[in-house]
Amino acid sequence: MAAARSPYGCDPDRSRGRLFSEPPSRTRSPFRRDCDRVIHSTAFRRLKHKTQVFVFHEGDHYRTRLTHSLEVAQIARALARQLGLDEDLTETLALAHDVGHPPFGHAGERALDACLHAHGGFDHNAQTLRVVTALEHRYPGFDGLNLTWEALEGIVKHNGPLTARNGTAVGRYREHGIPVAISEYNATYDLELWSFASLEAQVAAIADDIAYDAHDIDDGLRAGLFSVDDLKVMPLTAEMIAEIDRHYPALDDNRRGAELVRELISYLIGGVFSESRRRLEIARPKSVDDVRNHGEVLIAFPSGVAEAEAEIKSFLKLRMYRHERVMRVMGEAEAILFDLFARYQKTPSDLPAEWLPPAGGTAETERARRIGNFIAGMTDRFAITEHQRLFDSTPDLR
Question: What is the b/e burial string over 181-208, where b = at least 16 CB atoms within 10 angstroms of the residue's CB?
Answer without folding.
Answer: bbbebbeeeebbbbbbbbbbbbbbbbbb
